[in-house]
Write a structure and sequence with these properties.
heterodimer, A: about 250 residues, 10 helices, B: about 240 residues, alpha/beta, about 35% helix
Amino acid sequence: MNIIRLSAVAKREVQRFMRIPVQTILAPLISAALYILVFGIILGNRINFLENINYIDFVFPGILMMQLIFGSYSQSAFSLFFHRSTKTITEMLTSPLSYSEIVLGYIIGATARALIVSSGVYAIAIIFTDATPANIPFFIFYVLVVSVLFALLGLLIGLWAEKMEQLNMLQTFVLTPLIYVGGVFNSIDMLPENIHWLVKINPIFYMVDGIRYSMIGYSESNLLSGAFFLTGSAVILFALVIYLFKIGWKLRS
Amino acid sequence: MNALEIQNLHKTYTDKKGEKIAVDDVNLTVKQGEFFGLLGQNGAGKSTMISCITGINQFTTGSILVMGHDIEVDYQQARLAIGLSPQDFNVDVFAKIEKSIDLVGGYFGMSKADRNTRAQELFELFDLVQFKDKPFQALSGGFKRRYVLARALMHDPDVLILDEPTAGIDVEQRRALWKYLQELHKQGKTIILTSHYLEEVELLCDRVAVMNHGKIIADLTKAEFTKGGAKLEDTYLKLTESI
């Protein structure tokens, strides 16, 4: 692993999203602010389903998680797709960059974008919520593992996609529904008992639940299993993406 | 040492119509310091072979060594030895060229100080200083070609591979590029050039090979190609039309 080469790939990714800050940073901040305003404040003041926890404090970790997921996924998926479709990927393929340097560079760029957006969301939330993390190591773990996991998922889709709309398909038809039924806005206890299993097989539920625990100390799942599941998924996806880069799948004809 | 050694290179594509042979059992050696021309019609296999050498394409069978490094086993050392100016622009069109070339230097592991010095030298050499704050898309065709050539030279490679480096640029710019290439050759660089402009190949190259349907059908020195006062173009046409 060569640090200069790795930082060049990461720098290119950061430069790319900083070139279009309205789309990559401002738009998700506005979207998150609206979620906080509508679900957290306007509706939240009328919802009292948990003792000692304000609805805004319950909802905010999920909103933060949404921004991490979308920021990280969009960055790596769109960037790799752009590099493939414009053939600028060949700048990297003809250089001595190792496959792990390329993949890690994309992950660092995607994580940087997710962290910048999330920090902005956090800054907005401080005004309205009790947003101090209760468990800082857990909070850092969940923020990083989720960013890395979705950066890797973005790379996988960025490699596979032949058309731009295929990048949005996963976001619209898979990620958004999973997020909405993943416990962002409601406790699992608010759902009919016969569909609890649906929530429990949804990986987003463990991410939202984990980050919620790290922020307000409230959890509805087995945190340890969730943490192992997320870390294991990230390791498997990393190995898969490196393998696909190595064999040149959809990269080298 | 040979700059390039290709043995039994075979590359096939599979498309809807079935299997197509792009490079057919090619054996080729280019000596260090040679200015080598690779000619052939469109679709003859020149660009595919270059893509195999540079790591853009995979190949089916065979082996390629660049400055003694196997491009598959020892791909990092092999790629350090190569500078590529491709036929199609593979540059981020929205990025400022100063930033783009800096990133490329980074991909090759150059330190920040070395990248700054080298980029400045190359921008001065190719008259690109005035455009360094411009995105690639704002450059004219000739300056785009110059930038791509500067980028290929960023890490000071031993072997320079130029795929149609003067395509689509005016006569003045083409002549200026020829001058740069001759200077680079004098400095000892190995240059592999493909071009449809045969007068440029005749002027610049020491040795010329002709590809047709994925095979090398002729590999001669410039003197042999132009024997008896013949023009390279005439010899080339005789060769390709006789197939």
